[in-house]
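Example record used in the benchmark description.
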Amino acid sequence: MKSSFRPMILAAMAFGLATAAVAQEAPPAPSPNPETSQPAPPVETPAPAPVDTAPATAPAAEGTPAVEAPAVPAMTPDQYMGVPEYMLNLDLSTGGRVVIQLYPNVAPNHVERVKQLARAGFYDGIKFHRVIDGFMAQTGDPTATGQGGSQLPDLKAEFNLTPHLRGTLSMARAQSEDSANSQFFIMLQPRFSLDRHYTAFGRVVSGMQYVDAIHKGEPPAVMSRMVQVSVAADNKPMPPASMLVETVPPPAVPAPVSVDELNAPIRQ
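Model output (C-alpha cells):
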C-alpha cells in the first residue's frame, strides 16, 4: 500500500509544477481599452522648445481660419514721436511747409522708402496729379499721370490699424496689394473704407492749410507741386517764398475784332 501511494504523490507534484509553468508563460488578459491602458512605445525625448515671451494665441474654433498673431512693433512711440529722423517736411507751391509725423512702428518699410526717396531729391518738383475735393490729394509720380514711379522695387503691403483720418498719409498702389512704390496721398477728409486696404504710415501735424489749398481735379487744370521734400533731421531750410507759388498760366486774351469784321455782311 505504501509503495502504491508514493507514485501518486509524485504525480501530483509534477502536475502542480507544470501548471505553474504554464501560468507563467501565458500572456496577461486583454484590458477593456488597450489603446489607453497599454504603455506607449519609447520615443526619443525632443530638445526643450525655446521660451516665447509673447502671449500665446488661443486655438481657433473648428471651421474658423486661424488668425496670425500681430507682429511686435519695431519701435515704441517715444522712440519716433517728435523725433526729426521720423518727420517729413513738404514745402508746397501753395505757400508753405507741411510737417508730417511718420509711423515706423506700423509701416517701417514704407517709412524708409519715402525717406530714401526724399533724401535722393526724387520728390522735389513732383506735382499733385489727382486731387478729389473732400477725399484726398495724390502725388509722388514724376510723370504726373498716375502711371509712374521710382526705379526701386515695389513694396510689400504693411496694412495696419491706423485709420484714414483727415491728414493721414497713405501709400497709393495698383490692383495688387504689394504694388506700392513712390506715390502717396494725403487725406482731406476721413475715409474709413480705406483702412487695412492701403498702408497708412504718417499724419500731418502742421500746415494742413497748405494741403487744403492744393488745386483740385483729375488731373487739375493747374497742378500744385512739392517744391522740396526733406527729412526734418537733415535741417533743410524752406525755399524762398518766391518759389512757393503756383505756376498759373496767363488767361488767354481774345484777338481784337476789327471794324471790317463788325461791318461784314451776315452769311446766310
